[in-house]
Design goal:
There is one protein chain. The protein is globular and about 50 Å long. The chain has 5 helices and 7 strands; from the N terminus they run αββαββαββααβ. It folds into 2 domains: 100 residues, 2-Layer Sandwich (Glycoprotein, Type 4 Pilin), CATH 3.30.700; 74 residues, Hypothetical protein ph0010, domain 2 (Dna Ligase, domain 1, 2-Layer Sandwich), CATH 3.30.1490.150. The chain is 30% helix and 26% strand. Helix 1 crosses helix 2. Strands 1, 2, 3, 4, 5, 6 and 7 form a 7-stranded antiparallel sheet that branches. The protein is α+β, with helices and mostly antiparallel strands and 185 residues long.
């Protein structure tokens, strides 16, 4: 996880990256004066909301890039490449609420029986990834809280996000992983 100062830095960087891209049509240069802890490879998501409704959300669940680079990339992607929404415009930029979530490395939850997931998953702490074959869905920890999900609801909605049946989490061929997220708004 990162310090509060570094998290706020990432939040401002996400905003700056999007604004620069919308104004210039290209990615801005990486700043030179960033906190060095952001060189650590971490999973990062950037979420955009407008009037309390989702407007874009893209991220890297796995730690494949340094947090500084991942944040710049996924911020722009959340604004212009989320297939669920039209591209964000410069006119609406000021009306957006920004959120950066820094993730721990996902860990597969090993259970002997699906009922054990209820003991292993904590609403408000854990985010989920469900994978069955090539289908994969991810929901951030805050999604369960915002929607008042039970653990079962959370599992079902993560399955649906993967494009598989809601009860797939009970299937042995389905992997369920959890991770934690540090949220900066």
């Amino acid at each position: 996880m990162v310090s509060e100062e570094s998290g706020k830095y990432l939040l401002n960087l996400a905003k700056e990256s999007i604004k620069y891209y919308l104004e210039n049509g290209e990615k801005m240069e990486k700043p030179n004066d960033y906190p060095l802890e952001l060189d650590e490879k971490l999973g990062v998501f950037v979420t955009l909301n407008k009037n309390n409704y989702l407007r874009g959300c893209i991220g890297y669940p796995e730690p494949i890039l340094p947090a500084i680079d991942a944040t710049m990339e996924v911020a722009i992607a959340a604004a212009v490449n989320d297939p669920r929404f039209p591209q964000v415009t410069l006119d609406e930029f000021e009306s957006l609420d920004f959120e950066v979530t820094v993730l721990t490395k996902p860990e597969v939850i090993y259970v002997a029986h699906p009922d054990q997931y209820f003991e292993e998953i904590e609403i408000g702490r854990d985010g989920l990834i469900v994978q069955k074959g090539y289908s994969r869905g991810l929901l951030l920890p805050q999604v369960a809280v915002e929607n008042k999900f039970s653990v079962e609801d959370f599992l079902e909605h993560t399955c649906m996000k993967a494009g598989i049946s809601a009860d797939s989490w009970m299937d042995e061929s389905c992997d369920v992983s959890k991770f934690q997220g540090q949220i900066f708004k």
